[in-house]
Amino acid sequence: ANHGTLIELIWTITPALILIAIAFPSFKLLYLMDEVFSPALTIKVVGHQWYWTYQYSDFVNDDGDSIEFDSYMIPESDLEDGQLRLLDVDNRVVVPVDTHIRFVVTGADVLHDFAVPSLGLKIDCTPGRLNQTSVLVQREGTYYGQCSELCGV
To answer: CA dist 14 to 8, 23, 85, Å?
Structure first.
């Protein structure tokens, strides 16, 4: 009965060691992919209930204040021809093309989810936590973002 114990130990421990050997490089790659290296522009995004606040912290005026503005969705009653319902906003974020941009996101009140589907961008905005992601816009155009989480009461 003892000769079966050795083979059972071998076929149990060997796959476990293989999985551990695969896990370490995978975790390293996962964290490297999440890291943002030397962005040319950083934009802080704060999710509020029903609007976003954007802050271009790289640009500071003489008083030491950075560019900051709120962006509200245009109400259906105020839409003009050509504007998209539930997508167009009063203040758009403008970013350069072919530039590494870092978005640092957080929530001011409840959970939010900042998403720009056409750029492959989707990241959670959690109150009390800063998340970051990067994007490289390769073509000029208007890219519509949206909150992808129910941010109501």
So the answer is: 10, 14, 58
Number of C-beta neighbours around residue 135 at 10 A: 19
| CA gyration radius, the chain | 23
| pLDDT computed for residue 23 by the predictor | 95
Region 41-147: CATH code: 2.60.40.420
Whether the CB-CB separation of 104 and 123 falls below 8 Å is answered with: no
Of 57, 152, 54, 55, which is closest to residue 110 (Cα–Cα)?
Answer: 152
Tell me how far apart the alpha carbons of residues 27 and 19 are, in angstroms, rounded to a whole number: 12
pLDDT digits (tens, 9 = 90+) for 38-76: 899 999 999 998 899 999 988 887 888 889 999 999 999
Cβ–Cβ under 8 Å, residues 103 and 121:
yes
The answer to whether 53 and 112 are in contact (CB under 8 A) is no
Q: Which of 151, 60, 72, 66 is nearest to 108 (CA)?
A: 151
CB atoms within 10 A of CB 146: 14
The predicted model gives 91-105 an average pLDDT of: 93
User: Higher-confidence residue: 63 or 24?
Assistant: 24
Q: What is the mean pLDDT of the chain?
A: 89
